[in-house]
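Progress note, project year one: complex with magnesium ion.
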Amino acid sequence: MNVKVVGRILQANDRIASENRAIFKENGIYVLNLMSAPGAGKTSLLERTIQGLNGKKKIGVIEGDIATHRDAERIASLGIPVVQINTGGACHLDANMVREALSELPLKDIDMLFIENVGNLVCPAEFNVGEDEKVMILSIAEGDDKPLKYPLMFQESSALLLNKIDLLPYVDCSIEKIRDDVAGLNPGIRVFEVSCKTGAGLDDWYNWLMVKGCRG
Ligand code: MG
Ligand code: ZN
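Model obtained:
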């Protein structure tokens, strides 16, 4: 695709994203766009977060996947309203896909909406969907070279969860290097070291969400 075509696609996307934003505002919904590579732990983080916030926020979820309804089933089993978007091959969610999913959610009964993007470290960061914040997960098993290799996602995110810290003894990954590189790309980003397996570090994340979600 040439640059002009890409520019037009992003412009059209931004227009729909601002319409989505107006819908969220009207319904008092704080929205997070959750991004990561496949397998970093997005759905596990959502399961933990739903349990951790323990009804203090009325949560809704949009699950983006290329195929299958597995993640939506995991979320639905917790009694949370969830819509699955299958992108049929597309490697990111765009504003229009999110718009269509909104008609299937009880918007009046949601204060915090998590949009789990397709697992991919590249283009999810290029497409706004109307969110308040982009948040990303990097599992330490992916390696400490990722921030400099995929800078945009780290630059666009308000928070970074370094997940699977329980694996630290078994992998060659320097948390310090990640923190330094990320600080260079995005000095304002908030970094959490967590394990969705053991629950370590997640209380700080829940507190951050509660503070952010009350500003909406
Ligand atoms: Mg998932
Ligand atoms: Zn894509």
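The longest strand covers residues 30-36.
The chain has eight helices and seven strands.
No further modelling is planned for this target in the current period.
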